[in-house]
Structure formats: C-alpha cells, structure tokens
Batch of 2 targets.
Target 1
Amino acid sequence: MVQKFYIETFGCQMNKNDSELMESSFRNNGFIKAESPDDAKIIVYNTCSVRQHAEDRVIARINSAKNSIRNRGGLIVVAGCMAQRTGQSLTRDKVADLVVGPYESPRIGEIIKIYLNEKNRNSFLSQNYDNFSRRINIKNVTENDKNIWHKWVTITHGCENFCSYCIVPYVRGKLISFKSESIIEYIRSLSLSGIKEITLLGQNVNQYGTDNGDIPFYKLLDKVAETEGILKINFITSHPKDFSENIISVIKDHSNISRSIHLPLQSGSDRILDLMNRQYNMKHYMKIIEKIDKELRNYSITTDLIVGFPGESEEDYSETLKYVKDIRFDDAYMYAYSPRENTPAFELEDSITRNEKIERLNKLIGIQKKISQKKLRARIDKTESMIVERISKKSDSQVMGKTFLNHPVVLPGSDQDIGKNIIIKIKSLKGATLQGIRIV
Ligand code: SF4
C-alpha cells in the first residue's frame, strides 16, 4: 500500500532546503505527500537546535500529536539538527521511532523504506562526505517541481566560525564546500526545468571554497549569474568578516543578482563583538556598508541583532542603537540573548535580567520598525519587477511575492500568475506590505 508522508519544518532556510530534499526523496521512493499531518502515516519533524526553546517546542509538538499518530500505526521521525545533536536519546525516550540526521535528508525515502520493510531501528546520524553530492543532484528535481519557480541550493555545509553563542559548529560540523562544477551543473538543470529564482545557501557563504581550494564565493556567484534563464539569485548568509569587495563588484556586473543583502551585525559594540567572537569590528562593518552604498545605490540591507549578551552595558547597547539608526536597515531579525548549553557564551555570567533584555529588545524593535516603514514608504510610485509566489492569505483575488529588493508586495491576480515574472508599480503601503498593480 502507498504510504503518505508529512514534513513539519522548524528553523532556518537550511532546514527548508532539507525539507525540499526529503520531499523529493520520498516521492522518488514511491511515497505520496499528505495534505495534513492527520492524513499521514509518516510524520517527519525537521528540527532546529539553535535555541533551547526551539527544541522544547518540537518536543511539546510531538507529545501533543504522539497518541493520535501511534493509534493509527503511524511513524514519528525526527530529522534535522536536533536529531544530530541528541541522537539515540530521542528513540530511547520513545519520543521518536526513528532519528535521521541532516546529512541524510536526500535519502530519507530509502531509509524509511528499509525501516518499514526490515524494522531496522538504527538511527542515521553522520557527516558522510560522499553523500553530499545528492544535495545538488538533478534527481532532486521531480515532476512536482514543474509548478515552482524557486529552489534553495546549498553550496556549503557546516561552519567553523565558532561565534561564542552559537551551537551550529558543534551540531553541523566543519565547513564543507560542494564542488563548483556540480553546483553550476545543478543550477543549469534547474533552469532547464523552469526554475527562475535560486537562493545559494550556507552558514557563511562568503567562506565558500576556503576548505577545499575551489574557486572563491565571488567567482562562484559570477558563474551562477551567467546561467541562462535564472532571473533572480539570492545568497544567505554572509559573514561580515569574509564579505569582500569582489562580491559587490560581481553583484554590480549582473542584473540577475538581487540587490538585497543580508549582513548580520549582531551588536554595534566592538567589545561585545569581541566577546561574541565575531572576528570583525564596527570599522570593518561600516566599510562594507559604505562600499555597498557607493557601488549599488538601489539596494536593500537586512541584518540580525542580539541584545542582552552577557556583560552588555548600557553603553554597548547604545552603540547598537546608534548604528541601527545610522545604517537604516530595511529589516532586522532581533532577539534577546538566551544562553545555549555547550557554547562558550554559556560559561559567561549572564549579568542582565530577562526583564532588562526584553526592555532593550522592545526599544530596539520600536526604532527598527519606524525605519522599516520609512524605507518601505520610499518605494511608493516606483516600478519594480517581481516573481509571483502565491495567492494572498487574505484574499483569493490577490497574489503576493517579493520585489527584486525582497520587499513583500500584494497585488490583484490569480493562480494563473504564480511563477510569472512581472513588472509592477507600487501604489501604497499597508502594515509592512507594499500594495501594487501589474503594468506588464
Ligand atoms: S557564522 Fe557564527 S552564528 Fe553563523 S552558524 Fe557559524 S558560528 Fe553560528
């Protein structure tokens, strides 16, 4: 009997990519995607380990669904970073029936098939380098992809930067860059199958090639941009310490590389950046911003910020606010620091109370929100290009997508427009979403 699967995804874009790979693997092995978890026999939780809270949320989620899944003879699979980090304990504690680490995502269909046939209760955790080629393999493009326009393309795995608050290097392991020829070949095949937009993915894409002597990231970006048929290229995440001027020159040379740059700042204080082991200072960060500003002119810039890092004084916090006001990010992911066991920062005295952290965070969010609104309002009356992504959640007669600068837009349209590259005019702003009309 054909089995149905359902994947619930938590966490970052790497996990979204992994879920896409899992979906292809399931389909290629004869499984069918269920519309809802209640309709599925195999439920995969693709998890995140970055914060303790993220792991707690998944456990709570599984616990609330467990009885119903078990009563209908279903299978609970935990995949992703939490699977890699906690391994066998999840099966031992009967949270999951099977644990599959993130490196095994492209072959999860085969793994489940073997499990169902042989009841082999092994967990699958590894960082087996031979398996990485499966991530950028044309076999991942299934018939189902004919209706989509975007693909995540992982170019590196792991991270060796060891920011003091981050668990990723301990979970995902050392940096591994995939071969540039395989990446280019994969993107060419994506383009031939109708994909119009791609996002190059890595914990720090700017470090691409430094582990294996392959071409540097800016050269890879240049080659990717030359692929016929790819209309928009995004890349995340960039680490400021490795963001070279060459990257800006390549962006400038290619009209299909999005002028939307995500450059995590984390803190505006050199002292805190040092404690975070970020390996750059504000002088370096501002030099990049000035260069982007001078060379690209029409661009958007987003960032990540952490407030309340251990030892952050009022003065350090004011530095962050000052730079946020000076740089004027289009948007920011903002967090109050929360300690993560087994990271160096966990050993630092967490001197700031939870209330103080929340106060600092709220004030920062208030300032950034006003800046974001002003920057969005400045787009009104501009002509922009966009690829239509989906029907709007609020109205069946509206579609939504992102402009070339990755600002969200809603406009009148139907499901016939999905995947089309269109030209629009921005007419107004509602909340944090631009409202447009189609011109071409
Ligand atoms: S660059 Fe720093 S924050 Fe990003 S994954 Fe690596 S260690 Fe974590």
Target 2
Amino acid sequence: MIDFTFTEHDKKVLDAVRAEALVCRGYARHYDENEHEFPPDELPEAKDFPPTMSLFAGRGKDDTSLGVMSMMLAAAQSWGDYSVRMRRGKGGLGNAALRAAGTPEQQKQWGHLTLAMAITEPGCGSDPSRVQMTAVLDAATNEWVLNGEKIFVTTGCRADGVVVWATIDKAAGRAGIKSFLVEKGAPGFVVAHKEKKLGIRADDTAAYVFKDCRIPRGNLLGGNEEIPKESSGGFRGVMKTFNMTRPAVAAIGLGIAQAALDFTREQLQAAGVAIEYGPGAAGQSALAQRFLELEALYEAAMLTVLRAAWLSDAGKSNNLESSICKAKGGAAVREITQGCIELLGPMGASREHLLEKWFRDVRITDIYEGTGQIQRLIIARDILGYGRDELK
Ligand SMILES: Cc1cc2nc3c(=O)[nH]c(=O)nc-3n(C[C@H](O)[C@H](O)[C@H](O)COP(=O)(O)OP(=O)(O)OC[C@H]3O[C@@H](n4cnc5c(N)ncnc54)[C@H](O)[C@@H]3O)c2cc1C
C-alpha cells in the first residue's frame, strides 16, 4: 500500500532541513546578483546545523522510505534557496552515474569525490545519441584519448571530476557511447568558462574542453577488459541514473514553487484576502480561487514525484513514472510561479522580493535531465508501445 504519511521523526528531520534552508535563503539575492561569485561551502550561520545524512541516523523501520524522504528533503532544501544550498552539498549528478554504472572497485575509488556529469555538447542535447566527443584507446600506453567539448555542466567548476560521455565508435551509434571518469588535472582537460544564466545563478555551471586528454584505461565506467558493446558504462547503464534524478529535479522545482505559494499566501492574507479550505473554491474571491488551484496543482505534482520514488524504493520499475513526474512537475512549477506573480501584481515582479527570482529559478527544471517535450515522448512511447525509432 502506498502511504505518504510522515512519522514524527521524519517531520523533525524535515523541519531541521527547512531551518537550515532559511539560512541559505538569506544569501539568495546576493548570489543571484553577483553571478561571478561562488557561495562558500560553509555559511557562517549554518555551520552548527548537523549534516543532513546524520539526521537520517535514528530512522526506524516505520519511518518513510529513503527515496520518498530524499524527494522531500530536496524540496525542503530548495524551498530555502536551491543554488546556495546546492553549493553546500557534497556530490553531483556524476556520483549518481558512478553508482548506477561503476564497478564496485570504481565506486570505492571515486565515490568520495564530487562528480559532475557531462553529456551535452554544442550540437547534442535532447538526443544524447548524437554525442560527438570521441574516446580512442591508445594501446601503447593503455590510455583513452578524449577529444571534444561539453557545455552546461552543473557543478562543473567545483567538482573534483566528471563522468563524461564519449563515443568509441561513431558508426555504432548508441552502442558506441560510453561514460568515462575524468579527474580534474587530467592533461588536456580544461574548464573553459562559467556559464551565465537566467536563473539558479548561484549554481556553478561550466563549459569544458578536452584536447587530447589522456586518462587511464580503467576509467571507463563499468570496466573495460573486453570493451563490451553494452557494458553498464554504456548508454543504457547511465540512462538508468535518470530514474531517480528526474523525480529529484521535479522535487527541487516543487520546493521552489512551495516557497512562492507560501509568500503569496502571506501577502494575500496581509491584504485581507481570505483563503479558506472549507467552503470550496466557488464560494471565494477570484484571488483565493486561483490560489487554491495553484496549491492543488502543487499537491498533484508532488504526489507524482513521491509515487515515482516509492516505486523505486519498492524495487519496482519507475521508468514511466519518473518521466511523468518530471513532465508534470516542470509544467506545474512554471504555472505556479507565474500564477503567483499574477496574483501579486507589481510586488511579484519586484526585485525587492524573491518571487521573480523563483520564477526564473524553476525554469530549468523543465529543461535539464530531459525537457518537458522529451519526457512526453518517453511517456507516449511507453503507453502506446512504440519503439524509439517509431516515435521521435
Ligand atoms: C543550467 C543548465 C544546467 C545543465 N546541466 C547539465 C549537466 O550537468 N550535464 C549535461 O550533460 N547537460 C546539462 N544541461 C543541458 C541540458 O540537459 C540540455 O539543455 C537539455 O537536455 C536540452 O538540450 P538542448 O539545450 O541542446 O536543446 P535541444 O535538444 O536543441 O532542444 C531544443 C528544443 O527542442 C525540443 N525538442 C528536441 N527534440 C525534440 C523532439 N524529438 N520532439 C519534440 N521536441 C523536441 C526540446 O524540448 C527543446 O525545447 C544543462 C542545461 C542548463 C541550461
């Protein structure tokens, strides 16, 4: 049975995370306006908060499952400020790829590093099978030689290394694409610049260049004794990563949307607009009606996220559900933040408040980890039973 009732212990964990998130919110405007700066790893006012993982220590068998709780934590953190909080966290998207596709030895060797994930290139985004970056094995030195460019790499500047996609055989299409772990400092690996963005500006997003970059042969994820065509380090192995990261991205967007709803509710109530849950929408003002609609949208989207996480916790496939919650979440957070701006008028657009920033920050959640359109393609293929080549 699906049950998303949070235990008292879980509620305390979430309250603690929200308290810390509020500290991050205090820095939100500064790093939004000073994009060239990096938030510190430790904020002075937040240093006494316990690490999030230690809050999990006392969890019992009746507490909410780990995946579901992780989604709630992601939402609680981004409710404060997504990018400032992210800077303080350890690990990146590449760590999830390492866990999904690395051998136990590789996970042991690199698991402690913060790893970015670089798939996107100037000519390759939604269709990752078009990766142009090449990896050629130099049998004489037993090294891979990487050549190519990657753009929009989240955590790209501060990461210790990156899981990068490159093709070992362009003619083989998807089967030729493999993922490699490249540590910072590898010869020929350069962080070219930090990207400038619409939102999540405190987030560090980098562009990379690999020019005759040499890495040991053992850095192919999944192991490469025989360089199998479908090793776990290949296309399919790393795509598995997205089944938990897509719900997490949706949860992050929803945490920001929740902040926008909280702010809007406060402002409406301060202006004398009553929002009541008893009488139903029809008996209320147009402002309250619209607000209730936006809240209902939030609840519906959050339930799709929790369901995707719950399926994963239960050891069931969540390929379809992770795309559903990403598509639903990405669209919902755009509507919610825009709707909140409409409800508050000029106050919603003013830089005196964070609402206009939240509106900009959520936009990315409908783009990275697969755009809304790509999620709809995946959903349609799954429901209608089409293959990748039949519906694209
Ligand atoms: C802030 C930020 C951080 C990012 N972080 C990372 C990262 O860490 N690692 C990484 O590898 N990438 C990252 N990305 C890249 C991101 O994943 C891509 O931008 C995204 O996958 C879309 O690719 P694209 O920008 O090339 O758009 P395109 O693929 O060129 O798509 C353009 C538009 O066409 C639509 N479209 C494309 N194909 C279809 C289709 N078949 N049917 C219908 N519509 C379609 C898309 O939905 C989109 O609206 C990041 C991007 C940003 C902005």
